[in-house]
Fold this sequence. Notes:
Blueprint: H1 2-30, E1 33-43, E2 48-53, E3 56-61, E4 71-77, E5 86-88
Antiparallel strand pairs: 1-2, 1-4, 2-3, 4-5
Amino acid sequence: MENSFIDKDANKENINKAKTGKSYSxxxxxxxxxxxxxxxxxxxxxxxxxxxxxxxxxxINNINSFIETNMVIVKYKSEIGKPDFVIKL
Length: 89
């Protein structure tokens, strides 16, 4: 009988470890990565910035002010083509 109590306690510990592991991996997924991208065009009247990101042309909207440069550093999460892809300056 004592073994069954020990096994139940061990299972509870494993479950708690698994729960903390999952929350830790979620935090890593929520972090943004940075990448330097080439600027294609900035349209001041439309407030859009077009950049080259991994070979794809990406348009970022609502850019109120932009200093003309050839490269910008963007923050992104996920991968292009996935529904949770997010990119911002």
